[in-house]
Design brief:
The protein is built from 21 helices and 10 strands. With 585 residues, it is an alpha+beta fold. The protein has a domain at 458-584: Sandwich (Jelly Rolls). Strand 6 and strand 7 (525-533) form a beta hairpin.
Length: 585
């Protein structure tokens, strides 16, 4: 039999390597784009706090760290607990998994002295990236093995290529690979792999390893405790009474081995409890503070289809995985139950999280760690397609090819090119930009408003002007400008307000960017309001004119007002030369 899956696996590695080392090498980036930044810096902070600064409780190094490396705008990696100590916000599991990379980088810095041995200099960034890439390689290697237990070489080859080239796994494995999702992907693959081995050859060391893997997944993200169900339900054919009885008898026969696995889950999980007791004085601490779950009303539609962070909106090819549950039922009843139960339980947990867009995520990044299970449904679909007439197969490959193109486009432009803005997207901007390589800067206004004008203007008429000889300044203490109002009752298609803006430091947090707000009013009642965030178009030590176009509403109005709001930012912005003019299309 031809081994189609081996060349496919090598091609997957090459694709990942291109995005890791050529398209966007995060280990070469600085500040909030560095490999160790944002959430990664929080998961990682245990290591430098313990081994570099020897200060896991007070974190007195925090100000110097933020000043030198700026992994986050402020110290968000830990919070001050009731006993006065700092407690890490993120679980300890990732720090354990980063340890080999940290040791190599720290040893190199200590021996050579070429870089500061401070936990964040270039060798640490490089080793975390390389180690994370290795973890991804390992995960795909074993994924091929477990898929081949149930599917043909051709099916596995197509499935592997679709996973890497067509899903957001590419971003998490090759660029943002130091995040939890890449590591959890590999942990889940290994859990399935050793589960299969256990049922073939039940050995104590296999169950102990399974327990350790499930425990490590749990202290990486607590919701991954659901990983413990995989060894019990995997390859359980519930449609066969004999198979169910056989599974029950097997588990009963090897009860002591399973008990050992449970003990391992608890022992590994206790690492987190011991840290909480050491730093905070309590055995259990809810470190996510005001963030939690909405169990009774999970955000299913938003997580699947929203423009902000919809899973299928940004990873269209995984629609085939959902369809794949049907052929999986008919052709792979042995694994149907386990794949289905875990997949939908996982989605319920993931979609119930109140911060359902998961920060600046490209779609639903949290779905990536479920792919080692979901991919079996996708493989079921591919297996069925390979049995269909040639015309259906080619139509499917063409559609998949389009999904691959879009995934490459999303992965590239999510990090550079100012085209994709994870966590900020909306319908208007999505359809104006998706798949295109020539997006004008003007289109970014659609991230805040649903209308822009890009054609030629006729009948341009100035109707208002102020701040030509003076200016206003917004900063940490002055958040709101005066409201500039003038009488106007329409007569043109569009109204354009413009002003000159000057900054020294750019505000990168989009929720704190200065807003340029225009309202149409009728007897002080707001008829229509539109606004844009001006920092999108400003850079360090920059001054430029920025305008806002608003189509005049059909509803009657008698006044227009304009104001500026600094949106709680502490960055200073100077505004002058406010002008308003009307024009026709």
């Amino acid at each position: 039999m031809k081994q189609y899956s081996i060349p496919a696996l090598i091609l997957c590695y090459l694709i990942m390597g291109y995005f890791q080392f050529v398209d966007y090498p995060k280990f070469q980036k600085e500040y909030t784009e560095a490999a160790i930044s944002w959430d990664v810096s929080g998961y990682y902070m245990y290591l430098p706090a313990t081994f570099v600064y020897k200060d896991l409780k007070k974190c007195e190094f925090r100000d110097e760290l933020i000043k030198n490396y700026k992994p986050t705008p402020n110290f968000q990696q830990a919070f001050r607990y009731t006993n006065g100590n700092f407690v890490m916000k993120y679980p300890i599991g990732m720090a354990i998994q980063y340890t080999p990379a940290f040791i190599l980088a720290h040893t190199y810095c200590k021996i050579t002295g070429q870089y500061p041995a401070d936990g964040f200099s270039f060798p640490y960034q490089l080793m975390i990236s390389l180690w994370s890439f290795f973890v991804a390689i390992l995960g795909l290697y074993f994924l091929r093995k477990i898929l081949l237990e149930y599917f043909s070489e051709q099916t596995v080859a197509v499935t592997l290529l679709a996973l890497v080239a067509g899903t957001n796994y590419l971003n998490q494995a090759a660029i943002d690979n130091a995040m939890t999702h890449n590591y959890l992907f590999t942990l889940y693959v290994l859990i399935i792999y050793f589960t299969i081995r256990f049922y073939k050859t039940p050995k104590t060391r296999t169950t102990l390893l399974l327990g350790a893997l499930c425990g490590l997944a749990t202290i990486t993200r607590p919701t991954e405790l659901i990983s413990v169900i995989i060894p019990f339900i995997w390859a359980l054919n519930i449609f066969s009474k004999a198979a169910v009885i056989e599974r029950f008898n097997f588990l009963k026969e090897h009860f002591t081995k399973i008990l050992g696995a449970v003990v391992m889950v608890i022992l590994v999980g206790c690492i987190q409890l011991v840290y909480w007791k050491y730093a905070g004085g309590d055995w259990i601490i809810y470190s996510y503070e005001d963030q939690g779950f909405n169990w009774l009303d999970p955000y299913i539609w938003e997580c699947l289809f929203s423009y902000k962070a919809g899973w299928l909106t940004y990873t269209q090819i995984m629609t085939f995985a959902l369809v794949g549950f049907i052929p999986l039922f008919f052709y792979q009843k042995k694994i149907f139950f386990g794949v289905t139960v875990f997949s939908f339980l996982f989605m319920y947990l993931a979609f119930a999280w109140e911060i359902w867009w998961y920060g600046g995520a490209l779609g639903q990044r949290t779905m990536v760690q479920a792919y080692p299970v979901l991919i079996f449904a996708f493989a079921g679909f591919v297996d069925w397609i390979l049995r269909t007439p040639l015309l259906i197969r080619w139509a499917t490959w063409i559609v998949m090819g389009g999904c691959v193109y879009l995934n490459f486009w999303f992965t590239h432009y999510a990090h550079q090119g100012q085209a994709v803005f994870p966590g900020q997207m909306n319908k208007a901007y999505y359809w104006r930009s998706v798949g295109r390589n020539d997006i004008p800067e003007e289109a970014q206004k659609l991230l805040d408003t649903d209308e822009i004008y890009e054609g030629g203007r006729r009948n341009i008429t100035p109707i208002y002007g102020v701040l030509s000889d003076t200016s206003i300044t917004l900063n940490k203490d002055i958040q709101h400008s005066p409201v500039f109002s003038f009488s106007y009752n329409g007569g043109a298609d569009w109204l354009r307000a413009s002003a000159d803006f000057k900054i020294t430091f750019k505000e990168w947090k989009h929720w704190e960017m200065t807003q340029f707000i225009l309202r149409f009013k009728n007897k002080d009642k707001v008829v229509k309001e539109r606004w844009i965030r001006v920092h999108r178009f400003l850079w360090e030590n920059n001054e430029r004119n920025i305008y806002l176009d608003v189509r005049q509403p059909a509803e009657g109005f008698d006044k227009v007002s304009i104001e500026f709001w600094n949106a709680e930012s502490d960055k200073e912005i100077i505004i002058r030369n406010l002008k308003v003019e009307t024009f026709d299309e």
